[in-house]
Design goal:
Elements (H helix, E strand, L loop, with lengths): L2 H10 L2 H16 L3 H38 L5 H9 L3 H9 L2 E2 L2 E2 L4 H26 L1
Antiparallel strand pairs: 1-2
Helix pairs in contact: 4-5
C-alpha cells in the first residue's frame, strides 16, 4: 500500500473518485496484519505532517507576498534590492513572488527576511523623520 501515492491521488480526485479510493483503502487495510497497519498509520501521519508543514510555508509566503506587494506601491523595491542586498530588482521580485529560477523556487532565507525587515524599518524612520522636518 503506497500511502503517499494514495494521498496524492486522493487530493487530485473528484468527489466520486474519492469515494472509490476510500472504499479501496478500507478493503486493502482490512487485509493487513497488525504490524502492517501500524506502518501504514505511521506513514500516513508522516505524510499528514508534511502536508501541514508545506501548508504553513505556503501561507507564510502568501502573507509575505501580499504585504510586500501592498508596500511596493509606496517605496522603490529597486532601491531596496540595490542598497540593502546589492542585487537587482528582479532578484528581489523573484523572492517576493516565489518564482522558479534555474528549475528551483526561490525564497528568502531567514537572514534575508531579517535584512528586508530592517530595510523597511530604516525606510520608515527616514520617511517619519522627513515628515517631521517638513512639518516644522
Amino acid at each position: 500500500m503506497d500511502i503517499k501515492k494514495i494521498l496524492s491521488d486522493y487530493h487530485k480526485a473528484s468527489d466520486l473518485e474519492k469515494l472509490e479510493i476510500e472504499e479501496s483503502i478500507k478493503n486493502d487495510y482490512a487485509l493487513l496484519s497488525d504490524d502492517e497497519k501500524k506502518e501504514v498509520q505511521r506513514i500516513f501521519l508522516e505524510s499528514r505532517d508534511e502536508i501541514i508543514r508545506q501548508g504553513k510555508i505556503a501561507i507564510k509566503e502568501l502573507t509575505l507576498k501580499s504585504e510586500l506587494e501592498r508596500v511596493s506601491q509606496y517605496i522603490s523595491m529597486s532601491y531596496i534590492a540595490k542598497n540593502y542586498f546589492g542585487k537587482s530588482r528582479q532578484w528581489l521580485n523573484n523572492r517576493i513572488k516565489g518564482n522558479t529560477v534555474n528549475g528551483k523556487p526561490v525564497v528568502f532565507t531567514g537572514n534575508e527576511l531579517k535584512q528586508l525587515s530592517s530595510a523597511l524599518d530604516n525606510l520608515s524612520i527616514e520617511i517619519k523623520d522627513t515628515a517631521l522636518r517638513i512639518s516644522n
